C-alpha cells in the first residue's frame, strides 16, 4: 500500500499538470462574505476617487489649452499688425514717399545705417 502511495506521489511530481478533476473550479456565484462586501465598497470608493482626479486633470488640461490658444491668437494679431505696417512701408517706398516711419523702417531692416 505504501509503495502505491509513493508511486502516486512520484507520478504527481513528475506530471504536475495531470490532476484529478473534482468538479467545478473557481468562485461560486452569489456567495459573498462580509470582507468581500467591504472590498467592493473600497473598490467603489477608489473608482470614484480616480474619476474625480481624472476630471480634475481634464479640467486643468482644457485650461492650459485655452491659455495656449489665447496666447497664439495674440501673437497672430501682433503679426498681422506688423504685416500691415510692412505693407504700408512697401507702398510708400514704391511711391517714393519718404516719411519718418519709412526712415525708421529702413533703419530697422538695415538699409540705412545709423551714424
Describe what this molecule looks like in 3D.
- This protein has 115 residues and is an all-alpha fold.
- The protein has a domain at 34-109.
- Helices cover 73% and strands 0% of the residues.
- The protein has 3 helices and no strands.
- It has helices at 2-14, 34-94, 100-109.
- The model has no long low-confidence stretch (mean pLDDT 78).
Radius of gyration: 40 Å
Q: Helix count, per DSSP?
A: 3
Helical/strand content category: mainly alpha
Q: How many strand units?
A: 0
Mean pLDDT comes to 78
Low-confidence stretches: none
> Distance N terminus to C terminus?
117 Å
Report the sheet-strand fraction.
Answer: under 5%
Q: What global shape is seen?
A: rod-shaped
Order of helices and strands: HHH
* Helix content range: over 70%
Largest beta-sheet details: none
